[in-house]
Amino acid sequence: MIYQAVLAFCLVALSTEAPRRVRRQTANEVATRIVAVSKSKPELLSAAVSQADPDLLRVALTDADPKLLEVALTKAKEELLGTALTEGVNGDLLRVALTEARPDTLATALTAADPELLTTALTEAAPNLLGVALKEAEVKLLATALTQGVVQELLAIALTRSREDTLATALTEAKPDLLNVALTEAKPELLATALEEAETAILAVALTKSRPDLLAVALQDATVENLIVALTSARRRKRSLD
């Protein structure tokens, strides 16, 4: 089984080489292949070489941090590894995940995520915001954002419409149950407003001190203008008017 997986791996690597001419592999490309053929779990290497889109496999073997590739090939759930490497995933976002994540956040994404939410993150996120999520997030909060009934549209909003500082605040300071409320019950335009306009200190208060039912009311019933008032200071509003 191991021999067959390694053979398949080598064949895929050779058959997808483009253009078809000899070139010297970089040190990183050598290192990623060593990881793949010497440290992988056989069933995960098998999943990678049998299910991966060739272009995405090439991203993994060309650009990945070898330590992060080792995490993917030793700790991932087989289904989620397949999800991360299948057609439709954005290669630039896969590159972010395999170069900018912390080992613990990558492991969380590849073991705890709902497959549909992982797909959303790897197809729709702004690259800089996916990088923030995978570099800054507390593991428990990242798991909350990728599971527990989170609405795909709301996750996409968080990964495309946030400012970097508001996303980092939500994924480092929030209480898990309140983050879950924001990502399951908010109206899309109000979640976007909160993540685009909020002052981080006030957002942190909202995501740590609120009662869940009252946070839901605010993110469902507020007008856009009043939500901005609630999440920004008078001083900031005064400066914006000057």
Give a short overview.
The protein is an all-alpha fold and 242 residues long. It contains 19 helices and no strands.
Fold and architecture overview:
- By secondary structure, the chain is an all-alpha fold.
- 77% of the residues lie in helices and 0% in strands.
- α14 (176-185) runs parallel beside α17.
- The chain starts with a helix and ends with a helix.
Task: Give the helices and strands, then pairings.
Blueprint: H1 2-15, H2 27-38, H3 42-51, H4 54-63, H5 66-75, H6 78-84, H7 91-100, H8 103-112, H9 115-124, H10 127-136, H11 139-145, H12 152-161, H13 164-173, H14 176-185, H15 188-197, H16 200-209, H17 212-221, H18 224-231, H19 234-241
Q: Helix/strand/pairing class, anyone? A: mainly alpha
Mean pLDDT: 91
SSE order, one letter for each helix or strand: HHHHHHHHHHHHHHHHHHH
Distance between the termini: 70 Å
User: Largest beta sheet, briefly?
Assistant: none
List the uncertain runs: 14-18
Total E-strand runs:
0
Give the overall form: elongated
Counting DSSP H or I runs of 4 or more residues, the number of helices is: 19
Compute the gyration radius: what is it? 20 Å
> How is the quaternary structure best described?
single chain
Helical proportion, percent range: over 70%
Beta-strand fraction estimate: under 5%
Features:
77% helix, elongated, 242 residues, 19 helices, mainly alpha
